[in-house]
Amino acid sequence: MSEEKLMMKALSMDIITAKMFTELHLSITEAYGEDEGRKLVHKGLEAFGLRDAETMAKKATAEGQNHAFYEYLPQVVEGEEKYADLTTFARFSKMFAQISKQVVDKYEEEGEDVIRRAVERYGRKRGEGIAQRARSNGLENNSDNYLKNYDMARSELFEVDTVYKENEVEQTFTYCPFGQQWADDDMGKYGILYCQVIDPSVAKGYNENFEVVHDQYVLREGQCHFQFQMKK
User: Fold this and answer.
1) What's the sign of the alpha-carbon dihedral 220, 226, 231, 232?
2) What is the pLDDT along the chain (232 residues), one digit of tens a residue?
3) What are the chain's domains?
4) I need a surface site. Which of 38, 104, 166, 219 has the fewest CB within 10 A?
């Protein structure tokens, strides 16, 4: 008797954002100590907006996701949301950029490496989760099953062309809400740190032999071009 296939629900952007924030918190405090690290993170979160952070924190918690947001939020958060009318993708971008800005502006190249390390850890954990999603339905973690079991929903805000080849997936994004928000906010120097690391890290978490050629970026060339290649 064949096993029933499980319907894998995509993670909400509130969960995705909470995961990213937690890895930023961990990497920054590891690099600069609890006092300095927390000051940097808190300054970035204040620049983003504590009320907006609280809204995302509550939604992520309601969906069962543990995170570090509440370590930076008072019991009662004053003020109004600044970005209630923006998409969850835009809020992710703004949060990431504001926290990264505090670290990079002060510690320059060393700070860039700290942010990249946070993205790498976050990406690998997501990739491991994608592999588990595939395995739960009896599927191998090969190139064909990568996007089919992806953890983040691809909303209509993404404009993408996807081509499947033997042991390879090629994608061209002509519009990305993350990159566009960083460009609109003139925060590309911080957003690019995410773009440089995220897809190779997710791919490696999914399968150690899954490599990514990312030769064009929305923030540089106006589009993102990827080749996801299974090497073995």
Assistant:
1) positive
2) 456 677 678 999 999 999 999 999 999 999 999 999 999 999 999 999 999 999 999 999 999 999 999 999 999 999 999 999 999 999 999 999 999 999 999 999 999 999 999 999 999 999 999 999 999 989 999 999 999 999 998 778 999 999 999 999 999 999 999 999 999 999 999 999 999 999 999 999 999 999 999 999 999 999 999 999 999 7
3) 13-230 (3.90.1520)
4) 166
Name the amino acid, one letter, at 16. Answer: I
| Reported pTM | 0.95
Q: For residues 18 and 24, what is the distance between their CA atoms, to the nearest angstrom?
A: 10
